[in-house]
Amino acid sequence: MPERKPLSIGVLIIGSLYWDERRQTWREARLNMGESFNVPMRIRYGRLSTGRDNTYTMVFSGQAGEGQAKVVRCRQDIVNAADLDVETNELWAAERNMKADGSIASDWGCVALLCNPASKVPAAFTDAWAARVRAVSGYGGIPHVPGEETPVSAAGLLKVPWPVVAGTNGSVPLDLLIATANHPTLAGDPKSYPSPKMIADAWLTKEAVKNDRVAYFRNNVANGINTFEDADIAALLDGAHRHQ
Known about the structure:
The protein has helices spanning 24-30, 81-96, 123-134, 196-203, 206-210, 215-222, 230-242; strands spanning 9-13, 31-49, 55-60, 66-74, 105-106, 109-115, 176-182. The chain is an alpha+beta fold. It has a 7-stranded mixed beta sheet.
């Protein structure tokens, strides 16, 4: 792909990538934390994480009420597809707490791209990204409930509107965003997301309490990452603690 005008890029963050100390090295190397935006976003606790003692982490969901996520600008702008590969590889490595190995997906999530419609991102750019994700076995295929679209297209694009800055009518002033979209854990017939009680109960199990897994929820809230169900979840957690 020929050299072209640099495109500004950021990461759309809906969980612990923003605050987890294990991701500090990645944040310092790749992100400009001083250029961070609060953005309304339809997100929820929905993925049952075995690595967090079977408690829930965050997912994108078209049926969720409006919550709030973060956008943080990357230190380096993007000139070509190779530059985008670097950022997506490093994001996925940070997500897995591993060194970058060229992968951008697994059976529990993937990295997706979002383009600012006002930026006229060249088609050659998105075509190169689509070709890359097509070469990844099992990319995408994120479960969803009836009446809801899967959040990532076959071309690797995140299917959410370009975000606005919270409290304003202004769009996030970047050309591109990348994000990790995780697979929700759906149950029942028809399939549904976990209820606030299921989410709270998971953080109240013996193992989760011992390892303070509810810190994931508390840290999200403290850092301005929230969902439409946070008040209900917090009330259930606090009520359980009062009765212990």
